[in-house]
Amino acid sequence: MPDLQGCLPSLPKPRPASIHPAMSVVRTNAAAGMLGVSPNTLRSWERRFGFPRPRRTPGGHRQFDLAEIEALREAFEQTHNISSAVSIARERGEGPASPVRLRSAFSRFDEPRCDRVLEESLAVRSVERTVEEVLLPTVSSLGGSEAETGPEYGFAWRYATGWLAAIQRAAPPAHRDPGILIFDASEAGDLDALYVQALELCLRRAGLRTLALAVALSPERLARALRALDPAAVVLGGRRASMDALARVVFAARHRGESVRVLDYRGALPEASGSTVTRIGPGAMQARDALLAALDERPAASTGASATG
To answer: What is the CATH number of the domain that holds 68?
Structure first.
């Protein structure tokens, strides 16, 4: 008889269970409800077509992959023929990356799945569109601040700020002369903080020299930053700064010269303040385009033509 005890250490050890399943799953009744059929009809489709494919829990309950059910539902609504729908659903798989899929990953605290969804989006969208059409809307849908929402928003916010920082590190070097100085009046956990990051990313990818700083700087440090970058535009972002702090930034920027544009991104200055500062946004791509258009007006301004701002 072989020594079984001696063989045991060589057996593969099971991997620790994750805090979440690898995929979002639904039970038979819920899956049937999503498809608008009875549980018996769903089981007959499974036997006939081998799709959707259920798994069993340790307790013996049947569970279906939510992505398969969603793909089948969409195809069935289009074809009204189960055989054709199964064929289409198998070919499509989970479908393109979307805020719905990313929200599901955030809600399950599934970081690898978040990575996959965004990687799939980057295969069909630009970085800027992935940020604006997938990442930011998803985080926004979970809430506007961690203090007012649950842990899902906190996880999503931290994931998003890390992802944006990683993408920004891969941005190409600046190849345009104008410098942009962003003063960020947001705090950790604010949705505005992600939008400021997104704008900085868009500007860097557009080739502009871009620097983002906290708005709460002493007058000396503020003046030093303005001298160092010599910005063509100063952007105010976030909504946590006092009017005194914002006024100090605006005054210091305009003191550099009339050609320096001061822009308000996503309502950094309250509307009731009566400010004449030009507003840009609300999206990062919109703000980037508006800023580039404002910079294009600078040569005209230097030759005597009027410019707004």
So the answer is: 1.10.1660.10
- Quote the pTM value: 0.69
Q: What is the 3-state secondary structure of the chain?
A: CCCHHHHHHHCCCCCCCCCCCCCCEEEHHHHHHHHCCCHHHHHHHHHHHCCCCEEECCCCCEEEEHHHHHHHHHHHHHHCCHHHHHHHHHHHCCCCCCHHHHHHHHHCCCHHHHHHHHHHHHHHCCHHHHHHHHHHHHHHHHCCCCCCCCHHHHHHHHHHHHHHHHHHHCCCCCCCCCEEEEEECCCCCCHHHHHHHHHHHHHHHCCCEEEEEECCCCHHHHHHHHHHHCCCEEEEECCCCCHHHHHHHHHHHHHCCCCCEEEEECCCCCHHHCCCCEEECCCHHHHHHHHHHHHHCHHHHHCCCCCCC
Structure tokens at 39: 């549980």
CATH of the domain at 289: 3.40.50.280
Could you report the per-residue pLDDT of 233-282, keeping only the tens digit for each? 999 999 999 888 888 898 888 887 778 899 999 999 887 665 678 999 99
**Final residue of a structural domain among 92, 116, 145:** 92
Model confidence at 120, in pLDDT bands (50, 70, 90)?
Answer: confident
Asked whether 211 and 229 are in contact (CB, 8 A), the reply is yes
Domain that holds residue 111: 99-166
Q: What is the pLDDT of residues 282-291, one digit of tens each?
A: 999 999 999 9
Distance CA 70, CA 120 (A): 18
Which of 39, 73, 92 lies at the terminal end of a domain, its last residue? 92
pLDDT tier at 207, thresholds 50, 70, 90: very high
